[in-house]
Amino acid sequence: MGKRRLARQAAVQFHFWRDLHGDGAPERMDEFWEFCPATPRVREFAQPLIDGMIAHLPEIDDRIRKYCDNYEFHRISAVDRNVLRLAIYEMLHRDDIPPVVSINEAIELAKTFGGQDSGRFVNGILDRVKDDLTRPLREAAPAKPEEGGQD
């Protein structure tokens, strides 16, 4: 399994763990990494995902509520909810990751860790989020020039 897939898996596991243990999780990152060991390269990709999901959680949860017409937010399984949180964070705030990659990775995570219909449920919600995006779906945004560099 690739570094990025493992990092996404760790990010979902962290937020699942956070749902179960409350909002004190950022002070417990070492405890989480002891529970969920990962190589430095996996942690390097996972940590910004974890931190970004925390920073944008209210906005992300509002998106989930917006597209869950027939579901009450609290009734979405913890696995599906956290897979959606990760994918929506990536789609809205990680221009270096093409949205279709985020969707495909989320579907795979949902199928692996969720229930029988999790992949289909996650795909349906993320398809609606995708329709609101204004950036290209199949490519990452070009790298931004560094500040203070030469033109």
Oligomer: single chain
Low-confidence sequence ranges: 145-151
> In total, how many beta strands?
0
How many H/I helical runs? 7
Overall tally of domains: 1
Q: Regarding CATH, which class?
A: Mainly Alpha
Largest sheet report: none
Percentage beta strand: under 5%
The second-level CATH architecture is Orthogonal Bundle
Percent of residues in helices comes to: 55-70%
Structural class: mainly alpha
CATH topology: N-utilizing Substance Protein B Homolog, Chain A
SSE string, helix = H, strand = E?
HHHHHHH
**Roughly how many Å is the radius of gyration?**
16 Å
Distance between the termini: 39 Å
Which features does this protein show?
N-utilizing Substance Protein B Homolog, Chain A; single chain; 7 helices; 151 residues; mainly alpha
Secondary structure topology:
Layout: H1 3-21, H2 29-35, H3 40-55, H4 57-67, H5 78-93, H6 99-113, H7 118-131
Helix pairs in contact: 1-3, 1-5, 3-5, 4-5, 5-6, 5-7, 6-7
Description:
With 151 residues, the chain is mostly helical. It has one domain: N-utilizing Substance Protein B Homolog, Chain A, CATH 1.10.940. Helix content is 65%, strand content 0%. The chain has seven helices and no strands. It has helices at residues 3-21, 29-35, 40-55, 57-67, 78-93, 99-113, 118-131. Helix 1 crosses helix 3 (40-55) and helix 4 (57-67) packs across helix 5. The longest helix has 19 residues, at 3-21.
